[in-house]
C-alpha cells in the first residue's frame, strides 16, 4: 500500500511563504521512519531537520512541495467569499499534493477546526480520489505526517534564508520573534508599504502600519 502524509509550515508567521509538503511511502517502509526518529518538525532543531531531510527523501517513493506566497495568502484572507479563505487555500494546495502523489490513503494535519470538513474540502478539490484522514496534530500522531512536516519546514527555512539575504535579518518571520516586529517597524520608517515577503493582511502587520499612521497624523 502507498501511504502519503501531508503537512504545512509557516501558517502562523507574518513574513514568508506557507509551505505545503507531502511524501509518498510504501507501507512496509513505515517502520523505517520511526527508526530514524522523525517527529513533529517544531520539536526538532534546524540542524536535526536538515539531517533528517535526505533520509526522508531516500525512504519516500516521491515527494511534492507547494509554496503559497504572501500575496496568495493575503488574497485568501481578505476575500469576501466564504469558500476562498485560508483554510480552503490550504485544502486546495493539499489536493494538488494528493493528485501528484496518488496515494491509496493519505493522512493530513487538519487546518480547519472541523477536521472532517477539511478532509472533505481536500477531496472535493482533488482529481485523484482516495481515502483522506484529517486529524488535528497529526504531525505528532503519524510518523508519515511528521516526515512531511520536516520536509515542509526545511523548505520554508531555505526560503526564509533567501529572503533574509534580500531584506536583512527579520528573524524567523513569526511575530513572537522580536526581530520580526522590529523589522516591520524599521521598514516602514523608510518605505510607504511592506515588501512582498510580508503578509499584509495579517493583524500584526496591520497593527504596526496603523500605529505608524497614527504617529504621523499626530506629528
Give a brief outline of the structure.
The protein is of the alpha/beta class and 219 residues long.
Write up what this structure looks like:
With 219 residues, the chain is α/β, with parallel strands linked by helices. The chain folds into 2 domains: 2-164, 2-Layer Sandwich (Nucleotidyltransferase, domain 5); 168-218, Arc Repressor Mutant, subunit A. It is built from 9 helices and 5 strands, in the order E-E-H-H-E-H-H-E-H-E-H-H-H-H. It has helices at 30-35, 46-59, 70-77, 86-101, 115-125, 138-141, 143-167, 179-190, 203-218, and strands spanning 2-9, 18-26, 62-68, 105-109, 131-135. The chain has a 5-stranded mixed β-sheet with strand order 3-2-1-4-5, with helices on both faces. It is globular. The termini are far apart. The mean pLDDT is 92.
Q: List the uncertain runs.
A: none
Helix/strand/pairing category: alpha/beta
Gap between N and C termini, in Å?
Answer: 67 Å
Total beta strands = 5
Give the rounded overall mean pLDDT. Answer: 92
CATH architecture of the largest domain: 2-Layer Sandwich
Number of domains: 2
Name some characteristics of this structure.
Arc Repressor Mutant, subunit A; 16% strand; 219 residues; Nucleotidyltransferase, domain 5; five-stranded mixed β-sheet; 9 helices; 2 domains; single chain; globular; alpha/beta
